[in-house]
């Protein structure tokens, strides 16, 4: 802690990492101590330096050598994350994983973000998971879904090399998390990267099969959870809700609002907003944790 603020480091200086760094920099309870990449001349590290943040180009070794911080955000890739966690667990820091590695405890801020202090290793599932799971969790209180399908469409320009290499992990991790948060026995996740011009916003369509009741309570529940998500991702919008006696379909759209991200990169804005929200929930829980052990 520095001046009562939670110290943070970002591991990864790509498009996700630098937007995340800027969001942390604007937080009232988080202190951005370090951004780490692999090329000191990269645009990401240059922008981090412009924020007045310390930077390192030695990857994980730069982070380990910097010294302890309260929270590390891993914005690298799913293949590297297991090694990162193996090293970071020895430091006592809390790790929030933005890659789809699927390790650690899955966290969705609107559902179990208040539990983050109990877990030193958490994962944010995926951008599609952060869009779909809050709504699907609400649906699971309304019906018992026997099958859930999630189709995400993102602009090709919003998906970097690491995202493309990690698509298999993205799908598997998102399916596992949806099963965990809803109890649905069958889950299918599909991802489309659209090369269309102009670039489309991030869109997610969720379909749940199973017996349904009156539509009024469902519409109210979906509207309520959308308002909760907009607290950290202002561009999160429910486009439509359709209900019949055996199926519910909800269409979502997410645009990036403010910052350096283009509007179509709502997928990145959402997962980064969720990451900062979880870290702020962690920071807010620290005084009560201290009091409980006093």
Compact summary:
Helices cover 40% and strands 24% of the residues. It is α/β, with parallel strands linked by helices. Strands 3-2-1-4-5-7-6 form a seven-stranded parallel beta sheet, sandwiched between helices.
Account of the 3D structure:
There is one protein chain. The protein has 294 residues and is of the alpha/beta class. It has two domains: 6-124 and 270-293, 3-Layer(aba) Sandwich (Rossmann fold); 127-262, Dihydrodipicolinate Reductase, domain 2 (2-Layer Sandwich), CATH 3.30.360.10. It is built from ten helices and twelve strands. It has helices at residues 15-26, 43-50, 60-66, 81-88, 109-112, 127-142, 161-165, 167-182, 215-229, 266-293, and strands at 6-11, 30-36, 54-56, 71-74, 94-97, 105-106, 121-123, 147-155, 186-194, 202-209, 236-243, 247-254. Strands 3-2-1-4-5-7-6 form a seven-stranded parallel sheet, with helices on both faces. It has a five-stranded mixed sheet with strand order 9-8-10-12-11. Strand 1 (6-11), helix 1 (15-26) and strand 2 form a beta-alpha-beta unit. It is globular, with a radius of gyration of 19 Å. It starts with 5 loop residues before the first strand and ends with a helix.
* Helix-and-strand structural type: alpha/beta
Summed over residues and divided by their number, the pLDDT gives a mean of 93
| Spans where pLDDT lies below 50 across 5 or more residues | 288-294
Query: Radius of gyration in whole Å, from Cα?
Result: 19 Å
CATH topology-level name of the largest domain? Rossmann fold
Major sheet: order of its strands? 3-2-1-4-5-7-6
